[in-house]
Amino acid sequence: MQANESTVTSPRGAEARQETFSDAPCASDNSGALEESAPPASRSPDTPDSATTPVSANEAEKSIDEIREWRRRPHRARGLEIHAQYTAYRLDAAAPSDAIGQTPLQEVLPDGRTFEGLVSPVGKCGVVTALTGATVAMCLSVGGSGFGIVSSADLAYEGELFNGVPDGYGVGTFTTGHVFAGYWVHGAPEGLGQQALALDPNSDVGFGWYHGPHALQLVRPLHTPLPPPPLPMRRPSEQPLLGLYTAGRALEAQRRRQCQHVVSLWAARVCRASVAAAVEARGLAFESWRRAATAQAASCQAACDALRTRGTDPVLKERLDVVVARQQLAKDREVLRQARSAKAQQVQTTTVTCLGIERRSMALMQAELDDLDNELRSVRLARARCDAIHDEIADLRRRIEDRKVELHAMRRRHRPVVQPAPPRRLRSQAALPELPPEESPVIAYVCGVAGCACGVPKDVFRRLGAVWTGHD
Predict the structure, then answer these.
(1) Euclidean distance between CA atoms 96 and 118, whole angstroms
(2) Strand order from edge to edge, sheet including 123-129
(3) Number of folded domains that form the chain
């Protein structure tokens, strides 16, 4: 196994782990740039190291004054060293490393966890597995500091470690979905950093000073208005004291606003630097995770070779069965993943094809519906025109008939009524008295319509009856 200890050695040494103060001013002194938050349940400084074990409820809580002292604040050189290691890793990530003096090791730790990896005079690199399923992939130096990845039921952490516990700059994701990037102490956030649902180093949201899962102080936005400053005197009511008072209050407000702007910029800058160091430590932790997995595989291979050399067939068979089972499980998972991927691609292709056919069918149906709609609109317009023409023709016919009747009536009025000649009397034995004709200068015909020109007299039926009966 090849390992490069220069990329995993934490910049924190024995002297760096002492209670040192940062070169920058303490965040608690920036009352104008940081706003107070509710104090959380804190951790005791004597908490023993454990694999990301949360603080128990029966531990003594720190006072606000003890928290504000911030005795475990990081030294400025730590961030610079992390940046230098990260830059060297990015520029020379594929360079071969020296594996002299590394020995495979598999052991059971006193707390029941199992370590599988490689050890050397400068440190160890491997994977620690707990009975609960929590794993710690790490590469540590002799002093116990280094980088790695911690995976447990309540936390996923990538960054600096000390004896397998998150301690230093790093990025952690909680089960609630919150991501904290910044400084950690004993497996919990304690220092400057950023906490949000999604980590965005370029955003100022969530910047502040954290102690545990809660924020003691958050960076105040630059546009937050300040209350008017109180002056140690009463407001005068007469000039020129009133003008001097107003001018002094305006100058004091401007001074406070400028001070707030400067301090807010400084607070955001130091928080952004802490987040940047945590992100770089995260990159080194992923490299340590890769090397720890390689060391674990080398340790397992060395154990199998040792068992094969000693000829312990039952133990070797059991060990090989476990390894083969793991490999078979990995192959089965890969086959299942490929089958699911192929099925998903097939379903996606079929879905895309069906959607295309459906879109084309809908386009054709829409075109047909548009044509039918246009034809129906044309038919309705033609029907409306036909109805209008029919009504117009009926009106014209009615008017023509009315004009004809009026014309005949006018003709009848302007010429005398011609009485029909009396019929010749037939000789008969019986003589009927001749009835005088009814005098009607206008209505003289049988139809009884004024102005009618039918020419049939009204007494035609009487005369014909007399003729048929033989009475003259």
Answers:
(1) 17
(2) 34-36, 214-219, 207-211, 188-196, 179-185, 165-174, 155-162, 145-151, 135-141, 123-129, 114-120, 103-108
(3) 1
Nearest partner of 132 among 109, 106, 113, judged by Cα = 113
Other C-beta atoms lying within 10 Å of the C-beta of residue 310: 10
In a domain, 171, yes or no: yes
In the block, which residue shows the tokens 């312990």?
312
In which residue ranges of the chain is pLDDT below 70? 1-63, 65, 68-69, 71, 92-100, 221-229, 231, 309-313, 316, 416-472
> pTM to 2 decimals?
0.51
d(CA 463, CA 15): 156
Structural contact between residues 184 and 161, judged by C-beta atoms closer than 8 angstroms: no
| pLDDT in the model for residue 60 | 42
Q: 92 lies in which domain range?
A: 75-218+271-311
Asked whether the beta carbons of 146 and 7 are under 8 A apart, the reply is: no
pLDDT of amino acid 27: 36
Tell which residue, 127, 151, 171, 140, has the closest CA to residue 280: 171
Place of tokens 């007399």: 466
| Residue among 420, 80, 5 at smallest CA distance from 280 | 80
Q: Directed axis angle between helix 313-414 and helix 241-310, to 10°?
A: 130
Identify whether the C-beta of residue 124 lies closer than 8 Å to the C-beta of residue 118.
Answer: yes
Question: How many residues can be counted in the chain?
Answer: 472
58: helix, strand or coil: coil
Backbone angles phi, psi at 257, to 5 degrees: -65, -45
Query: In this predicted structure, what is the pLDDT of residue 61?
Result: 60
The pLDDT of residue 454 is: 67
CA-based end-to-end distance of the chain = 156
The rounded distance, in Å, linking the Cα atoms of 403 and 397 is 10
Residue 150 lies in a domain: yes
Is 19 among the domain residues? no
Tell me if 106 is assigned to some domain. Answer: yes
Answer for the pair 49, 168: CB distance below 8 angstroms, yes or no. Answer: no
Tell me the per-residue pLDDT of 373-430, one tens digit each, with 9 for 90 and over.
999 999 999 999 999 999 999 999 999 999 988 888 888 787 765 566 666 666 556 6
Instruction: Give me the sign of the Cα torsion angle 462, 467, 469, 470.
Output: positive
Instruction: Using alpha carbons only, give the angle 419, 421, 422 rounded to the nearest 5 degrees.
Output: 115
